[in-house]
Write a structure and sequence with these properties.
655 residues; alpha+beta; Immunoglobulin-like; Neutral Protease, domain 2; 4 domains; seven-stranded mixed β-sheet; five-stranded mixed β-sheet; binds zinc ion
């Protein structure tokens, strides 16, 4: 246990006594009172941030994110990286399209006025024109355990939606919209050697990182707007043409909300969780698909990872003009995506709803650093997405099932890795904005989904469940890092299967997460030849026992390692009398050979007969058929059929 964790635990226990069931350290708490003007697209806000120094360090500065400034002009790091487009949507060019956030005043309650001390910082790329992160030096230091209240007046101008947040006509999706304090990380918290603020600029390929707290938010806007937000709605009061809605969210790392006069509201319930779907009226017939898939996700995560600790879930269905805000996650609040009359066989609504819900666990509750270790959020979540989609919508049909074309979700994730040209240019463990040459989605989503499914098959269902449940229970509300996940896997696997097997699993994970090597094992050669009975002067020669009519064959099976990734492999060898032998190889050298002397000939050999190693990028070379004494035409037909079967298997996946 690090010093940092000790202090976190201390605060968790203090909170447990003082605030009744605090689940998290609650060191970044926001009270906000904001008003939206739908004409100017401006939010006027004031907030009080109650921040507690839960680190063992004395601090002389604060750092904040001002993400809406990523949309301020073409010179921001976000705009430069994304080229003004994101997921295919382009930034608008008229003035109303741009967004910004302006701190009008900032002071410590009962203390220093900080307004004139704000400095923009660009720790990631040195871009002096980027205004998405700030540092605020302090006259009086903040000691370990100190609480400060910071009063901020701010103005947030929402951009026209093209990436996640903003407006589209009178639809508003308000995310990353207020001054948000960064995470202070003491030495060793995620394995780093120096302590400091972990504050990153707003990037094209990166999401977020923040501390936990309680949010009390009052939103005022025209009374005909329907509102949805993170947490629970406490009240709604109307005054003239305006109304004020109050929300509270506990133990969350962020707060987002939406407003539109057009939403149709559908409410439902799963156990104690209130589900609220805000759907476009033209998509009303798709409401059930959102609700059913959300319930599937709630049920599956509850059973295989751990309980959902909140009692609300809001799902937003954006209009087509605001599609850039779809498929995004905030605590207890997700955006999905649909278009009118979407056929049931295109399971995009289900996939997006399940995926974004899954982020509640990895982004929201475990709350890993999405800037620096994106795979721990997107990748772990994509892995659970494949499991849930396959369970509820069929292994071979979970993503697409129309007119005889069938694609499973796991197959799609795996193909995204094995057939991607970027599969060797980067690692899954990499800062999200360091994928300039590509590979962000391959390495953050597809590859982790593939190696975590491989891990699952290597350890089996029960042990796999133990790993994930232990990981969740141990690390919820604590910002785990990659090394924490690997340590949990080691611990659980060692306990159940011993150190040798745990060491193999550890080697596999380390290569898969930190490396870019690919896995490819191949049966390169199989032969069987008749050994004539010994002839000549046979004094002192041992002759194998066999019936007079039987022949003895010597068979060879050669396995090669074509890729650089090393994994232990199983090889199933089938003889023409029906006998089968499974051989194990540590997979370390470039090749190995198995030799047999037997009355039967080898018919075929197959690597990884139970299809555990999804990481193997070429499944077509995993088997080899031998029929030496058959007529050549037949031989090639059989071989072709076997090869075809493997090709089909590698595309359609799994028998
Ligand atoms: Zn995601």
């Amino acid at each position: 246990m690090t010093k940092y964790l000790f202090i976190v635990f201390l605060f968790v226990s203090i909170n447990l006594q003082a605030q009744n069931k605090a689940l998290s350290p609650r060191n970044a708490n926001y009270d906000m009172d904001v008003q939206l003007n739908p004409e100017t697209k401006i939010i006027d806000g004031k907030m009080k941030l109650k921040w507690i120094n839960i680190s063992p360090d004395t601090l002389t500065e604060l750092q904040f994110h001002l993400y809406l400034n990523g949309f301020k002009n073409s010179e921001s790091t976000f705009m430069k990286e994304s080229g003004g487009s994101f997921r295919g949507d382009r930034a608008g060019e008229d003035k109303l399209s741009w967004g910004y956030i302006n701190i009008k005043s900032m002071k410590i309650q009962g203390g220093e006025n900080l307004t004139d001390k704000i400095q923009f910082i660009s720790p990631d790329d040195g871009n002096k024109n980027d205004q998405t992160a700030i540092s605020v030096p302090l006259k009086d230091s903040i000691l370990p355990g100190d609480t400060i209240n910071i009063l901020i007046n701010f103005e947030s101008k929402l951009p026209k939606i093209f990436a996640r947040t903003g407006f589209a006509g009178n639809y508003f999706l308000v995310g990353q919209w207020f001054p948000k304090i960064a995470v202070y990380e003491p030495v060793g918290m995620r394995g780093q050697k120096t302590g400091g603020w972990n504050c990153h600029q707003f990037h094209a390929h990166s999401e977020f990182y923040a501390d936990f707290g309680v949010y009390n938010v009052k939103i005022t806007l025209p009374k005909d707007y329907v509102v949805g937000a993170t947490g629970k709605q406490l009240s709604e009061t109307v005054k003239g043409n305006l109304k004020t809605v109050k929300y509270r969210a506990k133990d969350v790392i962020d707060f987002a909300w939406t407003a539109s006069p057009r939403f149709k509201v559908v409410v439902d319930k799963w156990k104690e969780v209130q589900i609220k779907l805000l759907i476009q009226p033209e998509h009303a017939d798709l409401a059930e698909r959102h609700i059913i898939s959300a319930k599937a996700a709630l049920e599956y995560f509850d059973k295989h990872l751990g309980p959902y600790p909140y009692n609300t879930l809001t799902i937003v269905d954006p209009p087509i003009t605001g599609a850039g805000s779809g498929g995004m996650e905030y605590p207890t609040f997700i955006t999905a995506g649909s278009f009118a009359k979407m056929p049931a066989g295109i399971r995009l609504i289900e996939m997006v709803t399940i995926h974004e819900f899954g982020h509640q666990y990895f982004m929201g509750i475990l709350a890993s650093n999405e800037f620096e270790e994106a795979w721990m959020d997107e990748g772990m979540n994509s892995y659970f997405e494949t499991r849930i989609m396959n369970k509820y919508y069929g292994k071979k049909t979970s993503f697409f099932n129309i007119a005889g074309i069938r694609i499973g979700d796991l197959e799609m994730q795996r193909n995204g890795y094995v057939y991607n040209k970027n599969r060797k240019i980067a690692e899954s463990y990499r800062y999200a904005w360091h994928y300039q040459q590509g590979g962000y989605s391959t390495m953050s989503y597809n590859k982790p989904a593939t190696f975590l499914n491989t891990l699952h098959r290597l350890v089996g269902n029960d042990l796999n469940d133990s790993i994930w449940k232990t990981y969740y229970k141990t690390w919820q509300f604590k910002h785990p890092s990659t090394r924490d996940f690997i340590a949990t896997v080691n611990e659980v696997v060692t306990e159940h299967k011993g150190v040798d097997f745990a060491a193999d699993i550890n080697d596999f994970l380390v290569q898969a997460i930190y490396g870019s090597d690919v896995c490819d094992y191949k049966v390169s050669y199989v032969s069987s030849r008749w050994i004539h009975d010994p002839q000549g002067i046979l004094d002192g020669i041992q002759i194998e026992e066999h019936s007079d009519s039987a022949k003895i064959y010597e068979s060879r099976v050669v396995i090669k390692r074509e890729g650089e990734m090393i994994m232990p492999v199983e090889v199933l060898i089938h003889f023409n009398n029906g006998k089968e032998i499974t051989k194990y190889w540590d997979g370390k050298s470039r090749s190995t050979e198995f030799k047999f002397r037997s009355v039967a000939k080898v018919s075929w050999a197959k690597i990884d007969p139970e299809n555990k190693i999804l990481m193997d990028v070429n499944l077509a070379n995993n088997s080899y058929v031998l029929r030496p004494n058959d007529k050549p035409a037949w031989k090639y037909t059989v071989k072709f059929l076997f090869w075809l079967q493997n090709i089909i298997q590698s595309i359609v996946w799994f028998v």
